[in-house]
Amino acid sequence: MNISKFPRIRLAHLPTPLEPLKRLSAFLGGPDIWIKRDDCTGLSTGGNKTRKLEFLMAAALEEDADMVMTQGATQSNHARQTAAAAAKLGLDCHILLEDRTGYNHRDYKFNGNVLLDHLHGATMENRGSGLDMNAELENVAEEYRSKGRKVYSIPGGGSNPVGALGYANCALELLYQFSQTGLRVDHIVHATGSSGTQAGLITGLKAMNANIPLLGIGVRAPREKQEENVCSLAAKTADMLGCSGVVEPCDVVANTDYVGPGYGIPAPDTLEAIDLFAKLEGILLDPVYSAKGGAGLVDLIRKGHFKSGETVVFLHTGGAIGLAGYSHCFDIPK
Ligand SMILES: *Cc1c(COP(=O)(O)O)cnc(C)c1O
């Protein structure tokens, strides 16, 4: 695996910090919990898409694109980070936003990530739910191409083999940090959605023979579908990296018990995870991804799945700016 042979543009503040969560660990009375702060990647309030965009935007420039196009849900963190990266590189950015939740709250539709998309100069169009959004994206990209634009289209979540390189690289960063910190890590846990994060991480971990189990907490798809998506993307990522076959199906584990009512709709345990991280650690989780991952982490500790004496690293994938779109979920005293 030699990641440095792929074109890359520096967009993220790396390495992101690896920190102990002392108060949360004491509160739960289980394993030692550490957090990998990919919420601190720096680009327009940060998040996990920035690592992927380092490779995706480099590929766009190699193709001489003058515009990037992508898609996501209304409060997409990926769309916002793509808009910011495009702004930094002087490319136009066009975004398709899917109404995946049916929320009609003003903040949901115009605040949080949507406000930032706008501030970064992206243009946007909306779509109802239930469409094949990557197909919609390709249709719109073709329209623009027929008008002479050089469009580089990025699939939802930046989840293709090029984007996943960012998380294969994060696996290297983690293993180096573990050895520098003298930390013996038993598990890594994170929220999994469009699959690029988990696919890249598992490819990097397996290629390095790390022997650390990785658990993705699902935010949308049922378990089988999620594991299938991660597996097939990991296989393509490994092919690209010249280590075909390093990831076996049994290495890809997703737990989708914390999706709750659906994508982008927080459940009571999602809100509890936000509360715990905020009040015990001063860390903000987001209601769509990281708090569903956090809810899984907390519940699996309570159930004894992760045990005292073990060390669990929670990868914080970012998204806290999305809280501004979810004011309707929180009781704020007037
Ligand atoms: C996109 C996203 C994820 C999921 O990552 P995938 O690579 O899409 O699986 C997790 N957390 C946050 C905050 C995200 O924006």
Characterization of this structure:
The chain is 41% helix and 16% strand. It is α/β, with parallel strands linked by helices and 334 residues long. The strands form two sheets. It has a six-stranded mixed beta sheet, sandwiched between helices. It is globular and about 60 Å long. Helix 1 crosses helix 10 (268-281), helix 7 crosses helix 8 (196-207) and helix 10 crosses helix 11. It starts with 17 loop residues before the first strand and ends in an 18-residue tail after the last strand. Helix 9 links the parallel strand 8 (214-218) and strand 9 (253-255). It binds pyridoxal-5'-phosphate (PLP). Pyridoxal-5'-phosphate binds next to helix 3, strand 7 and helix 8.
Run of helices and strands: EHEHEHEHHEHEHEHEHEHHE
Biggest sheet statistics = 6 strands, mixed
What's the count of strands? Answer: 10
Strand content: 15-25%
Compute the gyration radius: what is it?
Answer: 19 Å
Would you tell me the overall average pLDDT?
97
Q: What structural category characterises the helix and strand content?
A: alpha/beta
> Strand arrangement, largest sheet?
1-2-10-7-8-9
* Ligand roster: pyridoxal-5'-phosphate
Q: Which of globular, elongated, flat, extended, rod-shaped describes the shape?
A: globular
Distance between the termini: 55 Å
Helix-residue proportion: 40-55%
